[in-house]
Design goal:
The chain is 18% helix and 33% strand. By secondary structure, it is of the alpha+beta class. It folds into two domains: 73 residues, 2,3-Dihydroxybiphenyl 1,2-Dioxygenase, domain 1 (Roll); 50 residues, 2,3-Dihydroxybiphenyl 1,2-Dioxygenase, domain 1.
Length: 159
Amino acid sequence: MLTREGRSEEPARSWRVTGLHHVAYAHGSDDTPRLLADLFGVPAASEEPAEGFVERMLPVGESHLQLLEATGPGVVGRFIERRGPGLHHIALEVSDLEEAIADLLRRGVRMVDNAPQPGGTGTSIAFIHPSATGGLLVELVGAPEGGAAGRGDQMAGRT
């Protein structure tokens, strides 16, 4: 509900979105990482294999472009089979991941993860189901102990 001034009258939350962590692009085994790194002048800061895909993080300002290369059966491969290469998800940093999940569940928001899951570089993550966000898969990223969520040289991320 909006006030006359156009501000939301939602109750205060104990958590907030603090930034854009990354935007994830799913692609097949092709030349996409080199093409994008050359095009934008930002080589991959990290590369991390996972089950059925390889994740590469390209730093872009305060955020990252996450490239998800399907290397076998799994979530990224299924995504590409159904939709082709393209935007996979966006990831938002949150001030308190556990509070965010609890608040969203209390409000009846459909979640993929009802509890924090391990992410890269010591982060914790949870996904909001696309049916709750108008079709967009949203990843919430909690900060690792003692710092911002995956910032700096240790950035690797995990989808």
